[in-house]
From TrEMBL:
Chain positions covered by the region annotation Disordered: 1-31
Name of this protein: U-box domain-containing protein
Alphabetized Pfam families for the sequence: ARM_PUB
Skewed-composition ranges (Polar residues): 20-31
PANTHER family: ARM REPEAT SUPERFAMILY PROTEIN, U BOX DOMAIN-CONTAINING
Entries under InterPro entries matching the protein: ARM-like (IPR011989), ARM-type_fold (IPR016024), ARM_PUB (IPR058678), Armadillo (IPR000225)
Biased composition (Low complexity): 8-19
U-box domain sequence ranges: 93-313
Species: Cinchona calisaya
Keyword set, alphabetical order: Repeat, Ubl conjugation pathway
Length: 389
């Protein structure tokens, strides 16, 4: 994933300028104008170079075509990152950030030109604005599969976790996105885990909007980390850790809820006797019930499997009590502490059964229409032509 809308008008992927984004260059950006800016960025005058960087940032903010035209500015811009001027550093970071957005070639060129070392030095600096811009740059650059192993091998992961722990809110958001990008490269999840990031991730997850992209990446990262026992212990040891995941399961986006139920299922499957109670204690049943009806197909399947694991015995008790979802949930409701929680679960179970009955009725009505057309007797044989849904 590339950088999301970056506050303060720094960089944007979602916003596009309709008519001018990738159509013919307007008069102000004629080839001669582009060449003039490229010449300025290679000038010896630092002030002129800064103005050129600012102009490149402005022109590449929403235009893919400008990013192509200014690809030759990557090398001189990277050289400017090593200047001692904070103004030059800021202007250059923002220009490179906009050049990299949605442009794989520029992402790779920026890293190959040597930008990583100075960007990491900005992460270590005490200058909050440089920290913030450097984190945003790493978020965008780490979206490239070519760059991921290079960025992680440079020792970036511990620095991003430090930003996640101590940075400003926007830097934290960008850091979690960058860490997620890096986690998709083989071997990086264990590297991330060794930096003990779970408390920071949980803290961010607690305070961000549960339906946000930030919550989605937090939960996705947690799901990866609980694949290791160290990650599972860290999550359950963190106060409110499991609860934060349950809250995403209840009110997150479809993708976030899928990551949340995947997290809890991984924990329960790894050691049911150890993690069943911590999960049940946070009132997970209503959210799981809702997922069995309204979640994605993958979420529905995971929710049903988790419900089976959460009851007293994960196996059918007897032939008289078949292993239906209703029976599984009924047995779970009897174990829930707290009247309000139990009543909510019972209500959701009733709604779930009602939805199931309505779906079955619609299915039967569809079959009746197919099997008994007006010109055929009711007794005619019918074949199953209704697709399963």
């Amino acid at each position: 994933m590339d950088s999301p809308n970056y506050h303060g008008g720094v960089a944007t992927e979602a916003a596009t300028v309709g008519a001018n984004s990738d159509t013919e260059l307007p008069k102000s950006s004629s080839p001669s104008k582009v060449n003039e800016i490229l010449q300025l960025i290679q000038n010896d005058d630092v002030e002129l170079k800064i103005e050129a960087a600012k102009e490149i940032r402005r022109l590449t903010k929403t235009s893919q075509r400008y990013r192509r035209h200014f690809s030759n500015a990557v090398k001189p811009l990277v050289e400017m990152l090593r200047y001692s001027s904070v103004e030059a550093n800021e202007a250059t970071l923002l220009a490179l950030l906009n050049l990299a957005v949605k442009d794989e070639t520029n992402k790779i060129s920026i890293i190959h030109a040597g930008a990583l070392d100075p960007i990491l030095s900005f992460l270590r600096s005490d200058h909050p604005t440089l920290q913030e811009h450097a984190t945003a740059s790493l978020l965008t650059l780490s979206a490239s599969s070519v760059n991921k192993p290079i960025i992680s091998a440079a020792g970036t992961i511990p620095l991003l976790v430090e930003i996640l722990r101590d940075g400003c809110m926007q830097a934290k958001v960008d850091a979690i996105m960058a860490l997620y990008n890096l986690s998709t490269h083989p071997g990086n999840t264990s590297l991330i885990l060794h930096t003990e990031p779970v408390p920071c991730i949980v803290d961010l997850l607690k305070f961000c909007k549960k339906s946000s992209k930030t919550a989605e990446k937090c939960t996705a990262l947690i799901e990866s980390l609980v694949g290791f026992e160290e990650g599972r212990i860290a999550l359950t040891s963190e106060e409110g850790g499991v609860l934060a995941v349950v809250e995403v399961l209840e009110s997150g986006s479809l993708q976030s809820r899928e990551h949340a139920v995947g997290t809890l299922l991984t924990m329960c499957q790894s050691d049911r006797s150890k993690y069943r109670e911590p999960i049940l204690r946070e009132g997970v049943i209503p959210g799981l019930l809702e997922l069995t009806v309204q979640g994605s197909p993958k979420s529905q399947s995971k929710a049903q499997t988790l419900l089976r694991l959460l009851r007293d015995s994960p196996y059918p008790r007897s032939e008289l009590q078949p292993d239906t979802l209703e029976n599984i949930v009924s047995s779970l409701i009897s174990q829930i502490d707290g009247k309000d929680q139990a009543e909510k679960a019972k209500q959701m179970l009733a709604e779930m059964v009602q939805v199931s009955m309505e779906q079955s009725l619609r299915h039967l009505q569809q079959r009746a229409l197919i099997c008994t057309p007006a010109d055929l007797p009711v007794t005619s044989n019918c074949t199953s032509e209704v697709s399963s849904k």
